[in-house]
Amino acid sequence: MCAKILCIEDDADIVELVRLILEQGGFTVVGLMEPERACELALAERPDLILLDLMMPGMDGWEVYRRLKADPRLMQIPVVVLTAKAQSIDRALGLHIAKVDDYITKPFAPDELLGRIRSVLGQRQSGAGALDGGEIASTSR
Predict the structure, then answer these.
(1) What is the pTM of this model?
(2) For residue 114, is it within any domain?
(3) Which domain covers residue 40, as residue numbers?
(4) Using CA atoms in the order 73, 74, 76, 82, what is the torsion angle rounded to 10 degrees?
């Protein structure tokens, strides 16, 4: 079974890079650059994991995270932050205060991204049963 990943990121080049890396790793990926639309898609498609940029125009990543975790239908989906905010205080806030599932800083190595995604999904699978099936179409936008 192929895990579904939703990448919410405002930089089209990063969306495409993530899509290429993760699809080569066997994942199905959809990337969206509009946070509002991404929240709607998350509800409709229920991805297995969400990759979330923090610094986006309009609705920032923390607001997207709050909306996702406030919805009982989405609150169990793991969220991995993918951000340029590399300060240790930002990482600590994300991991220990907001309780994101992982925090990856840009730039990142392809192997690091794949390994961390697999780790989070593996932890969820072993702790919460099998991930649900189904697929969402691969797209870069």
Answers:
(1) 0.81
(2) yes
(3) 4-122
(4) 180
